[in-house]
Write a structure and sequence with these properties.
Layout: E1 5-11, H1 14-26, E2 31-34, H2 38-42, E3 50-55, H3 59-68
Antiparallel strand pairs: 1-3, 2-3
Length: 75
């Protein structure tokens, strides 16, 4: 199994990240949110996007899960 992570979602909307995480967890897909601590640098105004990462092996299934639930993904 590959341990390489791949970006699935990038957004400044924390509610989208939370919803995506819940959907993925419901499907048994592990995910990791990156750039959460950037709010310290930006003063919590939400200008820096957060990234949701998944294992490369899970990417296609994760992308399909989000698209099936109305997410628009790059690529």
């Amino acid at each position: 199994m590959s341990s390489t992570m791949k970006q699935l979602l990038r957004t400044t909307d924390p509610t989208l990240i939370a919803f995506a995480q819940a959907l993925l967890q419901g499907e048994g897909i592990d995910c990791f949110e990156m750039d959460v601590n950037m709010s310290v640098l930006e003063g919590s105004i939400g200008i820096f996007p957060r990234r949701l990462m998944v294992r490369e092996d899970d990417f296609d299934r994760a992308a399909r899960t989000l698209k099936d639930n109305g997410f628009e993904l790059d690529g």
